[in-house]
Write a sequence for this structure.
């Protein structure tokens, strides 16, 4: 029997040190690694041992009491230079997200996660737009961004969602 997934049971909480093990496991899964690249780079940013990544905000996605994914956001004006969003206006926030537990894939939860992440950013920051930068081959991610009102900017290659 297939378990019915209730999208109202999705929530987010800040990452803590105990979460590093599960995040590492997720980042090493092939279906995630092909989009996210080297897990060591991500883990160094999440751990922030040297304090150089204070501009990143990390969250665990929960389904009821179970960690099922990871997401983060950051103010694009605080990132090092050399990224696609370097010329975006003040108030631009970039997002990243993943579902690490396979049983929760293909259930529409990615759309809910992006909605909640954008709502969370709006409650904590003063965004004028959100941006995401999925690889062009990551069609599932692109579809969920479009469902959330993101539009491809052909000049930058970023998916953008302006705040009204």
């Amino acid at each position: 029997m297939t378990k019915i997934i209730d999208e109202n049971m999705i929530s987010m909480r800040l990452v803590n040190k105990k979460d590093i093990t599960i995040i590492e496991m997720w980042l090493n899964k092939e279906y995630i690694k092909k989009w996210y690249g080297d897990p060591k780079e991500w883990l160094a940013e999440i751990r922030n041992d040297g304090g150089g990544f204070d501009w990143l905000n990390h969250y665990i996605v929960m389904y009821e009491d179970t960690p099922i994914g990871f997401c983060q956001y950051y103010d694009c004006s605080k990132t090092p230079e050399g990224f696609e969003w370097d010329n975006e206006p003040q108030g631009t926030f970039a997002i990243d997200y993943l579902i690490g537990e396979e049983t929760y894939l293909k259930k529409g939860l990615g759309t809910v996660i992006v909605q909640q992440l954008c709502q969370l950013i709006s409650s904590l920051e003063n965004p004028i737009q959100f941006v995401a930068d999925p690889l062009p081959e990551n069609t599932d991610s692109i579809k969920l961004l479009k469902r959330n009102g993101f539009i491809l900017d052909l000049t930058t290659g970023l998916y953008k969602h302006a705040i009204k």
User: Anything to note?
Assistant: The radius of gyration is 15 Å. The longest strand covers residues 66-75. The chain has five helices and seven strands.
